[in-house]
Specification:
Elements: E1 3-6, H1 11-18, E2 25-26, H2 40-56, E3 62-73, E4 76-78, H3 84-94, E5 98-110, E6 120-130, H4 135-143, H5 159-164, E7 165-169, H6 172-176, H7 180-194
Parallel strand pairs: 1-2, 1-3
Antiparallel strand pairs: 3-4, 3-5, 5-6, 6-7
Helix pairs in contact: 3-4
Length: 203
């Protein structure tokens, strides 16, 4: 049986993948998430590839999912806040404007001999509009600690994070951290290409 491995410790990605009813294991990648690339598309693809390859080196007959999510506002890449003060600054910046959320995904198949096959790389981009926010909801949300492990300092699935969002254009799950529909289709295609014994349930 071909194993499915999620190279991420993100609880959001874990929860999303569980929605597909596919058995998988979690083995976070151990890489330095740094890149000289400033192009958002190339950045998320590069980091997701590095994560998938790093974890794949420990397996054989497995498909490893690597993913990376960033927020881009006025061409600036906004990662995870390093302090509560920075989280407040980011949310204040996003207030009353729109931004884009990019998620890159890499599906790395490693065969029975431990050889890495050609990776499947793709990304999704979702446009998000924020309501104009007062100081109270921003500080209330930041004080909960929830923004601290999220790119752009918010999670659309959170209680307070959800009320910040006015509307979106694109894949909702991409904002959460994994474009679920695209991921399933690419896994199905990979299974067919290599005749893998992946337990993909029917949607």
């Amino acid at each position: 049986m071909t194993q499915l491995i999620l190279a991420s410790q993100s609880p959001r990605r874990k929860a999303l993948l569980q929605k597909l009813g596919i058995p998988f294991e979690i083995q976070p990648a151990r890489i330095n998430e740094y890149s000289l690339t400033r192009d958002p598309t190339n950045l998320v693809k590069e980091l997701s590839l590095s994560k998938a390859k790093d974890t794949a080196m420990n397996y054989s007959n497995a498909v490893v999912i690597g993913a990376d999510t960033i927020v881009v506002h006025n061409k600036d890449i906004l990662g995870k806040p390093t302090s509560e003060q920075e989280a407040v600054q980011i949310l204040t910046r996003l207030s009353g404007t729109h931004h884009h959320v990019y998620t890159g995904v890499c599906l790395q198949y490693v065969d029975r001999e431990g050889r890495l096959q050609e990776p499947v790389l793709f990304h999704e981009r979702t446009k998000v509009w924020f309501h104009a926010l007062s100081a109270y909801p921003i500080h209330k949300y930041v004080s909960s600690g929830r923004p601290m492990d999220k790119a752009g300092a918010y999670g659309i699935q959170d209680d307070w994070g959800a009320i910040f969002v006015k509307k979106i254009k694109g894949d909702y799950y991409n904002i959460v951290g994994l474009p679920l529909g695209r991921c399933y289709l690419e896994l199905s295609s990979l299974k067919e290409r290599y005749k893998l014994e992946l337990q993909l349930s029917t949607p």
